[in-house]
Amino acid sequence: MPQPSSAQEPDFAAFIAIDWADSEHVWALQVAGSTQRETGKLEHTPEAIEIWALQWAARFPGRPVAVALEQARGSLLYALSKYQHLVLYPIHPTTSYQYRKAMFPSGTKDDSRDADILLDLLTLHRDRLRSLQPDTEHTRKLQVLVEKRRQFVAERTAQTNRITAQLKLYFPQVLNWFDDLSMPIVAAFLQRWPTLPQLQAEHPEEVRTFFHQHGSRSEARIQERLREMQESKLLTADAAVIEPGVLVVRTLLATVAALNAGIRQLDEAIQQVSATHPDYFIFSSFPVAGPVMAPRLIVAFGSQRERYGNASQILSLSGIAPVMKASGRQCTIHSRWACPKFLRQTFYEYAGLSIQRCAWARAFYETQKARGKGHHAAVRALAFKWVRIMFRCWQSRQPYHENFYLAAREGRAVPLTRRPPGTPTNTVASRHQASSTLCEKTHDFGLRKAGDILKSLMSEA
Q: What is the pTM of this model?
């Protein structure tokens, strides 16, 4: 992941910007201290990239060269990362797009001009860019694994949704008999009985045996299914609907089975890599941070502790902290749109899971709901708290102990509102209601005075 540029940046010999493409890249170069620019093209092959990179080492011996490109990942960035004399500056495509829109309102665009725009950003606004400082190989490998696993899970969900849509056309009863269409028992069932008439022609004891063989052993559930199977009515007898539907469902089930196999393989690889990660003991100590979420939390924070000066920086980067827009006497607070989506998703999903297993998290969530927050806003507010706790544990290299946290909050909690007479003071909800002040301030979407908000945050943080 990229790091903020250091105040003592290298003495660059030159600055290069690359407008990358699939097969051929356009580049522009400006030597330090000069206003003249050179341009050229780079073929996207390992051999051409190596010749291109080494020519700058020969031209500027012993001095680094800054390179800007619209990639935070990708084959070109990976290829250039191995050259020590190249300092890479990934630039977000939205940044270059907005800059081009401001400089060329007509909307004109070509590869050479895009390379010049990137070079402008690199030479004129480098203090606002971040040079690439790769994390450890261990962490980067884990990052790829957990992201690919999440993509496979999302793809499996998409395929099961398509199966659901198809079954609704000719065999909707299956949706009531099985809770999860991605389970192997569903594929086996529809492989053997693809339509309702074929199922009803089968002897009930054969169906009962099938369920037993596939791990479904609840006799009450089996009996209910058998009853419904005999009482079910055919939705349609139109072969033009049924026969194509059967073929499509079988194809989609095969895809789901392949995705399930891939997810299992990724799970094994993730377990092997995360178990040996030096920070695994920290993030596995959090509630519900099991074999799926603990590796994702490791990746979310990374291994470079100098990257973040405080928890607010990672809260802003991840999009958990909202954005405040102040103009005159009014201030609008809304959720952050531009952020790494997988990072935000990790914190949000963890906070949602923690509600099930953590008493104070559940109490905090219920408090947010009682104050009129929607579900998503309440989960984001809870994620705001969790990230701050995780950041402290990560920085100090200490595992999470809930008793220590509760004791610490008990000692410094300040009530947000006056308690009604007779309200007990030793409940989890009352202990943590007061501690949500900062989170409440930053997640209260609406119009407020900017000065009041900032003053409140500074006095209560």
A: 0.79
Is residue 389 situated within a structural domain? yes
pLDDT tens-digit map of 2-26: 444 445 788 999 999 999 888 899 9
The total number of structural domains in the chain stands at 3
CA distance 33 to 177: 73
45 within a domain of the structure (yes/no): yes
Handedness of CA 254, 256, 257, 262 (dihedral sign): positive
> If you compute the radius of gyration of the chain from its CA atoms, what whole number of angstroms results?
28
What would the pLDDT profile of 238-295 be if each residue is shown by its tens digit? 999 999 999 999 999 999 999 999 999 999 999 999 999 999 999 999 999 999 999 9
- E-assigned strands of 300-453? 323-327, 330-334, 447-448
384 within some domain? yes
Return the structure tokens found at 333.
Answer: 């607070």
Distance CA 105, CA 120 (A): 17
